[in-house]
């Protein structure tokens, strides 16, 4: 079961709407819509012009496949060399596997391909997808599920209940509409996580499969 075909996602408008509805960032003045939309277009034009490999992931990539929540950030799988080749992005935080930066009025979160799982998704789970701005290299359904499954055990250890709920809901929704082979995905994930995390992830997937089965029984779907 897949969702009905929808119009290409407008990344600039998604980010803009999320900023407007985030009370923590609301300052009583609306940002200039034209400036924000132009920043999104210019960012992806720069990536294409400099032939920098990237993969769109996170909430905006998810919205290409399913209806979802607002998101202010643009999330990209990127490598460190590419990050250094685009000085227009001001890097405000960097660790071995993650970075954060700003490009004009956009916030960008980077999943650095030094992480083996991120590199794996970039190599094996990417397709060109039509967005309003242009065709963009985005993670596939399987790629998004792998990234979220990979993150869940850490979120549990951190006690981040809010993000655990969001990630599990994202995975369950993708499972429901696209019916990927979870056994194959779990097998694919195994080399990138510890045995303890793999056991926890397998348990999470079984719970999500049970939730979907109950929904289908009660809804007649």
Description:
Helix content is 53%, strand content 16%. With 221 residues, it is an alpha+beta fold. The protein folds into two domains: 11-139, Beta Polymerase, domain 2; 143-219, no CATH class. A hairpin with a 3-residue loop joins strand 3 (90-94) and strand 4. Helix 5 runs antiparallel to helix 6 and helix 7 packs across helix 9. The protein is globular. The mean pLDDT is 88.
Shape: globular
Per DSSP, the total helix count is 9
Let me know the number of strands: 7
Domain count: the total is 2
Question: What is the mean predicted local confidence, pLDDT?
Answer: 88
Distance between the termini: 10 Å
The protein's oligomeric status is single chain
Task: Briefly note the structural class of the backbone.
Answer: alpha+beta
Helix content estimate: 40-55%
Question: What would CATH call the class of the largest domain?
Answer: Alpha Beta
CATH architecture of the largest domain: 2-Layer Sandwich
CATH topology of the largest domain: Beta Polymerase, domain 2
Strand order of the largest sheet: 1-2-5-4-3
Estimate the strand proportion: 15-25%
Low-confidence stretches: none
Give the ordered list of helices and strands.
HHEHEHEEEHEEHHHH
Give Rg in angstroms: 18 Å
Summarize the biggest pleated sheet.
Answer: 5 strands, mixed
